[in-house]
Design goal:
single chain, 35% helix, alpha/beta, 207 residues, 8 helices
């Protein structure tokens, strides 16, 4: 699978952004053979299941220049790396509790020339500083996730939604949302992407 699937949904990318997205499959294939950060069966489907999936957040929230975004439990750099390519003037701080995954992120970011990414081996609870948004991809249930980040938001919001969490999740989330007690807005990725993979995928927004 090629990166053309990304260009279908984001036709206004600069030549540099297109080149950066094109480099990702080969880079992740190389690093995944050394440090397993993506399931083996998914590596060939990386443009759809990892890059485009991450960019579901971009369809919901166009980050602004100067905003700061925290990616919690980033794993191999998703959704943070694809979003950092899409929004080169937004700062992205990627954290994960597994140090070898951060090594992969730093190598990938350097290889494609990303200057707006900082990645560190740390837990969300230990992160200092304030952010406009927190992004993540199915790290844990919302009820557990929310306390990790609830005190990390800037008070002043500049974007189309107030500062908060943009969480990629899949499946029927009725029970999980009720359990969390949070007021959420659900964005269904099937409204943006036609591939079957996105049929049950969502971006959950809360604050």
């Amino acid at each position: 699978m090629t990166s053309d699937i990304i260009f279908k949904y984001f036709p206004d990318l600069t030549p540099q952004q297109q080149q950066q997205y094109r480099q990702l499959p080969e880079l992740y294939a190389y690093w995944n053979s050394q440090i397993n950060v993506i399931s083996r069966k998914d590596i060939e489907l990386l443009p759809e299941r990892h890059v485009l999936h991450s960019l579901g957040i971009a369809k919901v929230m166009p980050f602004l220049p100067g905003e700061r975004v925290l990616d919690v439990g980033t794993g191999g750099g998703f959704p943070g790396i694809p979003l950092a390519v899409m929004f080169p003037e937004t700062e992205f701080y990627l954290v994960d509790s597994i140090g070898k995954k951060i090594k992969v992120i730093n190598a990938v970011a350097k290889a494609i020339g990303l200057r707006n990414v900082k990645a560190e081996h740390t837990r969300a609870e230990e992160v200092r500083g304030k952010f406009d948004f927190v992004v993540s991809r199915a790290v844990t249930r919302l009820k557990e996730f929310y306390p990790w980040v609830k005190d990390k938001f800037n008070k002043d919001s500049k974007n189309k939604l107030p500062n908060g969490i943009l969480y990629l999740k899949g499946g029927d989330l009725t029970e999980e949302i009720a359990e969390s007690g949070l007021a959420v807005k659900q964005f269904y990725l099937k409204d943006y992407f036609s591939e079957e993979f996105f049929e049950t995928k969502q971006v959950i927004y809360t604050r």
